[in-house]
Automatic annotation (TrEMBL):
It holds the Pfam family PDDEXK_16. This is Uncharacterized protein. InterPro entries: PDDEXK_nuclease-rel.
Length: 85
């Protein structure tokens, strides 16, 4: 389960994905449930396989999180994965 704020400082909130966890999900045919929230309320839900996440994004650009031991991450604005309508 991944959650992102609908908006934050005037911008879309983002889902943070971790490469190691994503690779495990993909290897085991797993996936995500993405939730877009605002003021504690769920506005949108979307279930998607790890493979479909990669397809929807045309691949994932991973980068160092800057936190020791946390590995690589990707921060994805929620409309890239969940319909904004």
């Amino acid at each position: 389960m991944k959650a992102a704020e609908h908006s934050r400082n005037g911008r879309y909130g983002r889902f943070r994905l971790w490469r190691a966890a994503h690779q495990k999900l993909k290897a085991n045919n797993g996936g995500y449930v993405f939730a877009v929230v605002s003021e504690g309320q769920v506005l949108k839900l979307k279930r998607m396989s790890a493979r479909d996440v990669e397809r929807r994004l045309n691949g994932i650009s991973w980068y160092s999180s800057g936190h020791d031991g946390k590995g690589h991450q990707a921060k994805i604005p929620w409309p890239h994965l969940v319909d904004s309508r």
